[in-house]
Automatic annotation (TrEMBL):
Chain ranges of the SsuA/THI5-like domain: 43-253
Compartments, as annotated in UniProt: Periplasm
Protein name (Swiss-Prot/TrEMBL): ABC transporter substrate-binding protein
Keywords of the record: Signal
Organism listed in the record: Paracerasibacillus soli
Stated family: Belongs to the bacterial solute-binding protein SsuA/TauA family.
Key word Signal present: yes
Entry keyword annotation includes Signal: yes
Length: 331
């Protein structure tokens, strides 16, 4: 009788382990995610990973940083990534090339520009006219930071290529150091670099391009049209995890968010992370839901057109999918 009980217990354990192994194999899906850069601006994405929201959806997300819009889209289109987090303007550039399998924007992460105007010297009485005649260190031609920068300057009756000396020959990663060592009086910087410069006395934040330019689909999760059609459930689970993270970020303090995402910014002090996140929260940079509204899309097209970078038609109904996000929000 004792041997029979032992055998029953052993068989039960083996059966449970077998079911567990089968369950793990069927429930978890690998998603290759390419982010255009490592940025505090993408805080909700790191929250989704660190708080286990992807895992709750049965997703194993493999995050890679691809450093640049062109490289990120190459990774997506060549199946090096299933999902890309990148500026939505890149999907427009791909569509204009008459791609047979274009990229579809399905979940918005940030809804404003993420750069700040930083000056070498304090300017307590700053007006945009102060920029005229200056040496201005800009961003890459055709990228969202530069297009938004030019849009804001024109909004204040400043022609970026006539009324100032605009420098655009510096790689994105080297812009901060070039500003410190060079002659430029103004620069566009993302956080946490802007706050670090303030703390170290290397620069002074005097204006926000995000506040000046209004709502725009600045960084968006996208996938190929074919992947979306073949794997709708994967994208649905991915979007649900992002929505959970967006809500968590909206409901928690900048200090708490900073603690969660600090592993992604090990070289940055916790207080700088919190200050930077607070700046973004105060100007509503983090989208609180994944829906990319048509009005924001039209603002993007206007910004691109003003910069002379709009390559052609960019139909909202073909390049943006809101149904997945809407269904999730209505659950």
């Amino acid at each position: 009788m004792l041997k029979r009980n032992k055998l029953f217990i052993l068989l039960s354990i083996v059966f449970v382990l077998f079911l567990s192994a089968c369950g793990n194999g069927s429930e978890h899906t690998s998603i290759k995610l390419a982010e255009v850069t490592r940025s505090l601006f993408y805080a909700p994405q790191y929250v989704a990973i660190e708080k286990g929201f992807f895992e709750e959806e049965g997703l194993d997300v493999e995050l890679q940083t691809t450093w640049g819009g062109d490289k990120t889209m190459t990774a997506l289109l060549s199946d090096g990534a299933d999902v890309a987090l990148v500026g939505s303007e890149t999907s427009i550039y791909v569509y204009a090339q008459e791609s047979k399998d274009h990229a579809v924007n399905f979940a918005q992460l940030t809804q404003t520009d993420g750069t700040f105007l930083v000056a070498k010297e304090p300017k307590p009485d700053f007006t945009w006219d102060d920029v005229k005649g200056s040496i201005f260190l800009g961003q890459r031609k055709g990228g969202m930071p530069q297009m938004v920068g030019e849009f804001v300057l024109k909004k204040h009756d400043i022609h970026p290529h006539q009324d100032l000396e605009l420098l655009q020959n510096i790689d994105f990663a080297n812009i901060p150091s070039a500003f410190v060592s060079g002659d430029a009086e103004f620069v566009q910087l993302f956080e946490p670099t802007a706050s670090v410069f303030e703390k170290e006395g290397k620069g002074h934040v005097i204006a926000s391009f995000g506040e000046e330019s209004g709502e725009v689909p600045y960084t968006v999760f996208m996938t190929k049209d074919s992947y979306l059609k073949e794997n709708p459930t994967h994208i649905e689970k991915f979007t649900r995890a992002i929505y959970k993270a967006q809500q968590w970020v909206a409901e928690n303090s900048s200090e708490e968010i900073a603690k969660v995402i600090q592993p992604y910014f090990e070289d940055t002090d916790l207080d700088i992370l919190a200050t930077s996140i607070e700046r973004y929260k105060n100007q509503d940079s983090f989208a609180t839901d994944p829906i990319l509204e048509e009005t924001a899309w039209e603002n993007l097209l206007n910004i691109m057109d003003e910069a002379g970078e709009l390559p052609g038609d960019a139909p909202y109904e073909e390049l943006v999918n809101t149904k997945i996000a809407e269904d999730i929000m209505n659950e």
